[in-house]
Design a protein that fits this description.
This protein is an all-alpha fold. It contains 6 helices and no strands. 57% of the residues lie in helices and 0% in strands. This is IS5 family transposase.
């Protein structure tokens, strides 16, 4: 095999494609509408009271709240019931 062809095949296997979520999710998507209606700032203030004082915050309580909210909205059930 020609070295140049082999090198070209190897380099194309490691390419990265940058994707913008705003382009993938339409402006009329139900999650975008919900985000506009729901006041996450107020929720974040309430959740700060249960946040750990440790330096490592993990995913953060607001993100975990949003995951639970999506789980409820999509009727996904719990992870334990899936396993």
């Amino acid at each position: 095999m020609d070295y140049r062809i082999k090198k070209r095949k190897m380099s194309s296997a490691h390419q990265i494609i940058m994707v913008c979520l705003d382009q993938l999710v339409g402006s009329e998507h139900q999650y975008r509408k919900f985000k506009e209606l729901f006041n996450f700032g107020a929720v974040e203030q309430e959740l700060k009271g249960i946040e750990s004082p440790a330096n490592y915050k993990g995913y953060g309580v607001l993100r975990l709240f949003k995951c639970l909210l999506l789980q409820f909205m999509e009727d996904l059930g719990s992870v334990a019931s899936v396993i």
